[in-house]
Specification:
With 904 residues, the protein is an alpha/beta fold. 34% of the residues lie in helices and 23% in strands. It starts with 16 loop residues before the first strand and ends in a 15-residue tail after the last strand.
């Protein structure tokens, strides 16, 4: 049964969301219910007189019972109220009410109020955003509000939320109106707000002023003892409070201990928890009472233990967020911040690397210990490190938001086991990669997909799609930990190459050849190979390197050095370092982290892995800093790492991701047709409906007519103009390689009638198409469909069952920029046929780019389009022509990165 405007909806559970306030604290949003009456009265009683006056336009010391009933009993359609909750306490409320009675069926009046103690946390724009999402779902397109003239902050809320508002003044009040449909400006503001709040929430984890270690113990075998020992050994700059429960020792490791967090006399920012899962609820209550902002839970016994543990983990997250906190873990290794002003090592790792400018995120605790040890051995300094364990709350996406705003981090490393929201990851990484390289190693095919959502439909190509989409976001993807650290070492210590031209200098022709082969296979151009011979002197080495570094025709240098017998290698290292202009010691000022040469240089010096002491430019704490020269144990690894640096530099040189400006687009018309078409449920659009939707986005389908009789076929051919084609319409006959499903180049009525009769008898189709013949060209295919992880995905490839069977297609996530579209066209292995003229005349690439960006905009603007296929598309120097389009429509799936922002 279809809902009518008069019928109340069932409680809309899907509007429930955990969101982040501007200070990084978690707030729970949910629709109001009649059972909230008492809490609503307490909320109102707690408001100051000033806040009540601004909300109700007059003194309202108490809410009348009738008003309480009216506010808590809503239909979730024409009247909607959302509550902002902290624990069981209401801290904010927003509501809208439809204005149909005022002859405004698509408008609603909106209002909200925030508890005085929680004002300034950005809750107004958050409530407004989620109310707008609910209103749009119920068919509203515009909000109105009445605001007292003496309350400019409320008007600022609407404006700062990104809405284009119109205002009118009426004495003491301001009337505000604005459209609630998402715009580019609105999305930009929401993303910026999300970025700031998520970064702040991670700062609460990584930059605490004080720490409580809950579960601290004097038993050196206990996890709580190890945590406290590591925090103290790192020299954490704030107070540390051991908490070991009632009746336990008065001190742990010589520091006064407390029975509960509540008993600590001073504020606590971060709680590091090492207590059994069964005791977690009491810990959370204590932390809420104390005002703790974040938790790191190293305790195991949750999702890794099976279904029962998974249920306990979900309950833990629900409690943590209800208490307004963020959580790393459970089953986490912990977090590190090497900033000298923080000096935080809240991990179980026996060894952590020194200070550097690389941020690292991983999940597995055991793997995290290996990663930290490897980084320390390679002399790769870290700014921050997060091991999220089961990743029940804080994910890689949250930490990326922090690193995007962190001046102490230049390079981001990720070891991915899975991402809860890869669509959001792609969006964040694309922005971050514009300024900082992101290098990811993934474990298994599921790493780039939502947990448990590997698509049967995609099967073996799932990994390929994920890689292409992440490449679109500028993420460097590697396969092994060695490759991850190889890449990070050159990115962290050397500049990006301005081009691919590479000089190879060495004293072994064999090793130099190995480097050259790998370099060329990896996309570098070897423009010089200088063999200095095995008896090379340090001055010869320095001179050759200097020549290459000063050569405008060289963009990067690889030095392969096998030391001659019985020589002082330190002298060669000093000569090499000075040849590239690297100083012996880096500047000590924090804002000058080393000196870069004018182009990158890597080496195989002594086959050392990482930064050898001889080639290090030490910072104030002795760790290698910018300008240090990376060394690799083999020439292949040196060349491959340099090539990845060039690949990232190429991505950085792309034009900025400016939105594509399209003309001749009627989004509302397309939306209306699609929504009307699916009124009775999902279905395939007719060929005519599909052509009309495309036409509203400036995409012409070659004119055709659907015919049922020979007479109609003949009339259609005359109307369209000869020559024409007669085509089958059933899916099993469309696109047949043997062309039995179509008769082409029919130049008279007799041929058309004969073709109609043959095809009806052959295919059994009662409806055929007569279509104007398009100019000859190479057949291509554009598709758009919903990927379970990345949302709308556009694919491109040559048309035909052979290319389908080989899955020779490129994939990109929506929306496409012009550069995305060009890269997508070049992605398939068969793409060279588009420009070589080997099969047909070269294709019109720019018209294909235009077509791709229009299809991208269509499926982005009208998400009810579940899939779209344009095939064949004939493209030649004469232009590009769409011969057929198939569109399926249906309800929009719930995707974590669409609609109002929320925690995943």
């Amino acid at each position: 049964m279809t809902d009518t405007p008069e019928q109340p909806r069932a409680y809309p559970q899907h509007w429930t969301a955990d969101v982040l306030a501007s200070d990084g604290g978690v707030v729970h949003l949910r629709p109001i219910a009649p059972t909230d009456a008492d809490a609503l009265v307490r909320f109102h009683d707690g408001l100051s007189e000033r806040t009540r006056y601004l909300r109700y336009f007059g003194p309202t010391p108490t809410l009348p019972p009738r008003e309480v009933v009216r506010m808590t009993t809503v239909d979730y359609r024409n009247r909607v109220a959302l509550l902002a909750m902290l624990g069981d306490e209401i801290i904010g409320m927003g509501l809208y009410e439809g204005l149909a009675a005022m002859d405004k069926p698509h408008s609603a009046e909106v209002a909200f109020v925030i508890a005085d103690t929680h004002q300034g946390r950005g809750l107004g724009p958050i409530l407004l955003e989620h109310l707008a999402g609910a209103a749009a779902e119920n068919g509203f397109t515009e909000f109105e509000a009445e605001v007292l003239s003496e309350n400019p902050n409320m008007v600022a809320v609407f404006r700062d939320a990104g809405y284009q508002i119109s205002r009118s003044f009426d004495g003491s009040t301001v009337h505000v109106e604005f459209k609630i449909d998402p715009t580019d400006a609105l999305t930009s503001v929401r993303n910026a707000r999300e970025r700031a709040s998520e970064a702040r929430s991670i700062a609460n984890l990584l930059r605490p002023g004080s720490i409580a270690v809950i579960g601290a113990s004097n038993d050196v075998q206990k996890v709580g003892n190890v945590l406290l020992a590591n925090i103290l050994a790192a020299g954490f700059t704030g107070p540390v409070y051991p908490v070991n429960g009632p009746g336990q020792a008065r001190s742990v490791r010589g520091i006064r201990a407390y029975a509960s967090v509540r008993d600590i006399p001073d504020p606590v920012d971060l709680a590091v928890v090492a207590v059994p899962a069964a005791g977690m609820s009491e810990v959370l209550d204590d932390c809420l009472s104390k005002g703790v902002k974040a938790l790191v839970v190293v305790s195991a016994g949750f999702a890794e233990k099976g279904l029962e543990g998974r249920a306990a983990e979900l309950a833990l997250v629900e409690q943590v967020r209800a208490h307004g906190m963020r959580l790393v873990g459970p089953n986490a290794l912990g977090v590190v911040n090497n900033d000298r002003e923080i000096a935080l090592n809240a991990t179980l790792a026996p060894r952590i690397p020194g200070s550097g400018r690389v941020g690292f995120f991983c999940q597995s605790g055991a793997l995290g210990i290996t990663i930290l040890d490897t980084a320390a051995r390679r002399q790769l300094g870290l700014s921050t490190f997060v091991s999220a364990g089961n990743r029940a709350d804080v994910s890689g996406n949250d930490v990326l938001q922090y690193w995007d705003t962190d001046d102490a981090t230049d390079v981001v490393l990720l070891y991915l086991e899975n991402f809860g929201n890869p669509r959001k990851f792609g969006r964040i990484a694309r922005r971050l990669s514009r300024s900082k390289p992101v290098v990811a190693i993934k474990s298994g095919r599921a790493a780039m997909t939502q947990v448990g959502v590997l698509s049967e439909r995609y099967g073996a190509v799932e990994d390929s799609i994920a890689k292409m989409v992440l490449t679109q976001a500028g993420v460097l993807q590697v396969d092994t930990i060695d490759e991850l650290f190889d890449t990070a070492t050159v990115l962290a210590h050397q500049p990006l190459p301005a081009g691919p031209r590479t000089a190879i200098i060495g004293n072994s022709s064999v090793i130099a050849s190995l480097a050259a082969d790998t370099a060329q296979r990896s996309g570098l151009q070897v423009v010089a190979k200088v063999d200095l011979g095995p008896a090379v002197t340090r001055s010869d080495l320095a001179e050759a390197v200097q020549v290459a570094m000063n050569d405008d025709g060289v963009d990067a240098v690889i030095v392969v050095f096998v030391p001659p017998v019985a020589v002082d290698t330190a002298e060669y290292a000093q000569a090499l370092r000075h040849a590239v202009g690297a100083p012996d010691i880096a500047p000590s000022e924090p804002d000058q982290p080393g000196v870069l040469p004018n182009k990158p240089i890597v080496t195989t010096f002594l086959a050392v892995e990482g930064i050898p002491d001889e080639l290090s430019v030490p910072g104030p704490d002795g760790m290698p800093t910018r300008g240090s020269i990376p060394s690799y144990p083999s020439p292949e690894r040196a060349a491959a790492a340099l090539a990845r640096s060039w690949r990232y530099a190429q991505w950085r040189q792309r034009p900025d991701d400016e939105p594509v400006e399209l003309t001749g687009v009627d989004t509302e018309a397309a939306r209306s047709l699609v929504r009307e078409a699916m009124a009775d449920g999902p279905r395939d659009l007719t060929a005519g409906e599909a052509a009309q939707v495309l036409d509203w986005y400036g995409i012409d389908v070659v004119p055709f007519r659907e015919v049922r009789t020979m007479h109609e076929a003949s009339a259609a051919a005359r109307e369209l103009g000869m020559p024409v084609a007669v085509k089958a319409t059933s899916p099993e006959w469309i696109g047949r390689l043997d062309r039995e499903g179509a008769r082409l180049d029919l130049s008279d009525a007799t041929a058309v009638i004969s073709a109609f009769r043959e095809l009806q008898e052959l295919t059994g189709d009662q409806v055929l198409q007569v279509q104007k013949m398009a100019p000859k060209g190479l057949g291509t295919r554009i598709g758009a469909t919903e990927h379970p992880s990345f949302g709308s995905i556009v694919s491109f490839g040559l048309s035909g069952r052979l290319f389908d069977a080989l899955d020779d297609r490129g994939y990109r996530a929506v929306p496409l920029t012009l550069e995305d579209a060009r890269e997508l066209i070049a992605q398939p292995r068969s793409a060279r046929l588009l420009t070589s003229g080997e099969v047909e005349a070269p294709a019109d690439i720019e018209s294909l780019v235009n077509l791709l960006t229009r299809i991208s905009a269509l499926v982005d603007d009208v998400p009810e389009i579940r899939s779209l296929v344009c095939e064949p598309i004939l493209s030649s120097e004469d232009g590009t022509y769409v011969l057929s389009a198939r569109i399926k429509v249906g309800p929009v799936p719930t995707l974590a990165d669409t609609g109002p922002r929320r925690l995943g």
